[in-house]
Design brief:
Elements: H1 12-22, E1 27-30, E2 35-38, H2 41-50, H3 58-64, H4 66-69, H5 78-92, H6 95-122, E3 128-129, H7 130-147, H8 162-177, H9 183-192, H10 195-221, H11 234-241, H12 243-257, H13 273-285, E4 292-295, E5 300-301, E6 307-308, E7 313-316, H14 318-321, H15 325-328, H16 368-385, E8 386-390, E9 400-401, E10 407-408, E11 413-418
Parallel strand pairs: 2-7
Antiparallel strand pairs: 1-2, 3-11, 4-7, 5-6, 8-11, 9-10
Organism: Solanum commersonii
Protein name: Cytochrome P450
GO molecular function: heme binding; iron ion binding; monooxygenase activity; oxidoreductase activity, acting on paired donors, with incorporation or reduction of molecular oxygen
Length: about 425
């Protein structure tokens, strides 16, 4: 087979997407990696709901991320997972927790994010890396909400945080473990303390030091908080490519809340249907987690007829699913928020097994609503004051760096421009 037969892609996920699109069942098996990969919604529902017990995260996954995530809710199965999920669910359902989360986010937006963007806008030649800004924003919010600590990463001076650097590095190096054909490779590296495993030890040590200090402080106070927060920088890349859509978000905000009025509660976001549609559409094309893996406990057959052998890895691929014509239509590659709006102009949910961005079924993301509130609040406040121009508009296709969550290689460099008030 000649090398010209293989398509050329700059992103691994696009390579997988190509072969999944070519497969009649939208499922492929890579035997050398012991991996079955699917973009078939029926298979996703089978794994995440119908036969949930037969497709846990598995010991392999827990081992790969064990040094980084320990025995937390993201990295365990069975009774330990059920207990942690129950505790987190009870916390996140409380109105007081949601109100506190909105207060934290809104304070960070008004006191740090907006002043930083205004400063960049005043210097017309300054290039700002929005990916870095959003990472800092999220990290400040997570630490203040979950731990009661304020790392102040989004101060105007953009201070260097050794913890955030360590966290990102640990995420990247842990993800690389899963890239090895066999786990024995990274385990040998760890045993001899060489290569990437040696690099991983330093950030893990720093993360553990902070975690132990947080636990000590929380025990003194006798309480703790939990939360899941994310920022999808792809939303802003897409809006920069489609400025008319940003204008429509502004128009909707003015109609619903009044001209230049600020958000005062997360309940106000429920009436911003087009903003919600833009958020969902951006994550359809660029999900924060591009694929997720489970391990098959016992021999099984997926609904499309694919045989899955006991002990093998099974991966569902939200990134590829967002590019399937039979799910989203012939315009599936187009950024089209209108596909989420019904005839009454109201945002309409899709089947979560066709759109497993927040997982689905038994293990759906508990932090989903809180993450959406953060993203919509920040987007709302940003777009009412500023618009952005890509610093390198010729780079039409984003390239991704390896990691547990999707990140742009080279960041998202932009120019920030202030919108003149119409009052």
């Amino acid at each position: 087979m000649t090398s010209s037969w293989y398509p050329q892609f700059t992103n691994l996920c696009d390579w997988y997407t190509h072969f999944l699109q070519k497969s009649p069942t939208r499922t492929i098996q890579i035997h050398v990696l012991g991996n079955t990969i699917t973009a078939n919604p029926k298979n996703v529902e089978y794994m995440l709901k119908t036969r949930f017990d037969n497709f846990p995260k598995g010991k392999n996954f827990s081992t790969i991320l064990g040094d980084f995530l320990g025995r937390g809710i993201f990295n365990v199965d069975g009774d330990l997972w059920q207990f942690q999920r129950k505790m987190a669910s009870l916390e996140l359902r409380r109105n007081s927790i949601r109100s506190f989360a909105f207060e934290v986010m809104n304070t960070e937006i008004q006191n740090r994010l907006i002043p930083l963007l205004a400063c960049a806008a005043n210097n017309k030649d300054e290039i700002l890396d929005l990916q870095d800004v959003f990472r800092r924003f999220s990290f400040d919010c997570i630490c203040r909400f979950s731990f009661g600590l304020d790392p102040k990463c989004l101060e105007l001076s953009l201070p260097i945080s050794q913890f955030t650097i360590s966290f990102d590095l640990a995420s990247q190096l842990s993800a690389k473990r899963a890239m090895h054909v066999s786990s024995i490779v990274w385990k040998i590296k760890r045993f001899f303390n060489i290569g990437s495993e040696r690099k991983l030890k330093k950030p893990i040590k720093l993360i553990n030091i902070l975690a132990q200090e947080v636990i000590r402080q929380r025990r003194k106070l006798g309480w703790t908080r939990h939360g899941g927060i994310c920022i999808n920088k792809s939303l802003f890349w897409l809006l920069a490519e489609n400025p008319r859509l940003a204008e429509r978000i502004r128009d909707e905000a003015n109609e619903v809340l009044g001209l230049n009025q600020e958000l005062t509660s997360c309940e106000q976001l429920r009436d911003l249907h087009y903003l919600q549609a833009c958020v969902y559409e951006s994550m359809r094309l660029y999900p924060p987690i591009q694929f997720d893996s489970k391990f098959c406990l016992e021999d099984d057959f997926l609904p499309d007829g694919t045989f899955v052998k006991k002990g093998t890895r099974v991966t569902y691929h939200p990134y590829a699913m967002g590019r399937m014509e039979e799910i989203w239509g012939v315009d599936c590659l187009e950024f089209k928020p209108e596909r989420w709006i019904n005839k009454d102009g109201v945002f309409s949910q899709e089947n979560p097994f066709k759109y497993p961005v927040f997982q689905a079924g038994v293990r759906f993301c508990l932090g989903k609503e809180m993450a959406l509130v953060e993203l919509k609040s920040m987007t709302f406040s940003f777009l009412r004051r500023f618009h952005i121009e890509l610093a390198h508009p010729s780079h039409h296709i984003p390239l991704f760096s390896p990691g547990l969550t999707a990140s742009f290689r080279g960041g998202l460099p932009v120019f920030v421009r202030e919108i003149k008030s119409t009052t």
